[in-house]
Write a structure and sequence with these properties.
13 helices, globular, mainly alpha, single chain
Amino acid sequence: MQNKKNNLFGSIEILITGIIWGFIGFFVKELSLMGASSELITFYRVFFAFVFALIVGLIIYGPKSFILTREQLFWCFLDGLLTQGIFNYCYSICVEKSGVAIAAVLLYTSPVFNAIISYIAFKERLGIKRNLILVLNMIGCIIAATALDFSFKSVSIIGILMGLMSGITYGASPVLGKYANKNPNLFVVIAYNELFASLFVLLFLKPFNNIENISKNMWIYGIMYGVLITGLAYMFYYDGVKRMTEMSIVPVIASIEVVVAALVGILIYKEPLNVINYIGIIVVIISIILMSKVSSAHKV
C-alpha cells in the first residue's frame, strides 16, 4: 500500500515537472529573439539552477550538508554531466545540424532507452501492456512534434548521432537520478548536478564568446529560466523519481511536456497546429493515463 501511495505522489510530481518543462520553448524563444546564443541559453539554465539550489540548500540544510561521500559525488557528477551538460549540448547540435523536427523525433526515443537502462540497472521488466503503451507514447510524441511531415531536405549523420545521444542521456535521467537521490538532502543533489553541468558548459560550449551583446533583459529571463524551469522543476522531478519504484514509466508521464509545449505555441505565439498535431497530443495524453493505470494495477 505504501509503495502504491509513493508511486501516486511520485507520478504527480513527474507530471508537474513535465508541465513546467513545457514552458522551455517560451524561454528559449524569448532569449533567442533577444540575441542570446544556444550556448548562453544552456548556461543560463544550468548555472542559475545551481545558484537557486545552492542558496536554498544552505538555508534549509546548512553548509555541512554539502559534504558528500565519494560515491555520492560520483553519481551527482555523472547525473549532471550526462543528463544536463551532455544532453543539452547534443540536443542543440542536433537542432543545428538536422532541424527542430528531427531533433524532436530523436529525443522522444528516450522512453525506449530508459526501458533498456532500467532493465540493466534494476532488472525492471515492462511486460506486454507497458511495451505497447511505450510504443503508443512514442508514436504520439512523433505525431505531435512533426504532424507526420517527414519531408526533410537533408540529413546530417552527425545530427542523427547527436539526436540519438540526447535520447539516451535523457532516458538515463530517471535511473541516474535514483542513484544520486540516495542523499536525503534534495537541494544538495540538485546543486551538485547543476554545478557539474555548468562546468561542462563553460569548458566546452564557451557561452560568453559574445559577452558584449548580453543585455539586462537576457539576464532577467536567464535567471527565470534557470530558477523556475530547471531548479523548481528538478525539485519536483528528483523527489518524484525518489518515490517511484518503476523508472521506465517516468519518461512517459513526463512526456506531457509535449502537450504543454504545443499549447504554449498556440496560445502565446499563435503557431498553427493541424488536426494531425492534435491527434498526436491526444495519443500522448492517452498513453500517460494508460501507463498510470497499468502501474497502479500492478501495485495492488
